[in-house]
Amino acid sequence: MHDEPIRVLLADDHPVYRDGLAALLASVEGLEVVGTAEDGLAAVALATELQPDVVVMDVQMPGLDGIEATRRLTTASPHIGVVMLTMAEEDATLFSAMQAGARGYLLKGANQAEITRAVTAVARGEAIFGPAIARRIADFFAGAPAAGSAAEQAFPQLTAREREILELVAAGRSNPQIASTLFLSPKTVRNNVSNIFAKLHVADRAEAIVRAREAGLGH
After folding, report:
1. Within its chain, how far is the Cα of 9 from the centroid?
2. 3-state class of 2 per DSSP?
3. Domain 6-140 of CATH type 2.60.40.1220
4. Cα–Cα distance for residue pair 211/101, rounded to 1 Å
5. What is the mean pLDDT of the chain?
């Protein structure tokens, strides 16, 4: 990297967090913040124009989210390293970000040293993940994914509640049985089941059960 500073572009839709993080990064010797973007489209456009070494990208942004922005960015400029910033640690988000080409993954709330380490490592072409994320990856490749993640991996488009209900549908439970098992109103269960059918593009309960069982649910 010679002695030139690492040029960083920051993309986050929350102005207070974005400005705070920009100030934090700018205060680190060897880092230079060359621009900030408030959404995914701006991030892709600015990165293409400025060609930074690293983009620190929020996962959830309006318009174009961080994962799709990363996919476009790494396709157009594969040499730019992307560090994903996220509030949560869902496996589905992590693997989508990795598939999109992100090389680093940090939780919001990471301290200055952690963020600096991630940016520096990614600028050198390494991949870096927080301890919790690294553990998830190790578990995944060891074939011991976190609880409930068979449903997460098979149906990442469903919410946690919808996956829980789909598990019970796959086990052959009726809506009233599901309502009493999960302490929900029958109407809530009905609405969730309708959402599941729509998201899985299935016509009825039987088809949903087949899809879920093929994915290993409900046995």
Report:
1. 19
2. coil
3. no
4. 29
5. 86
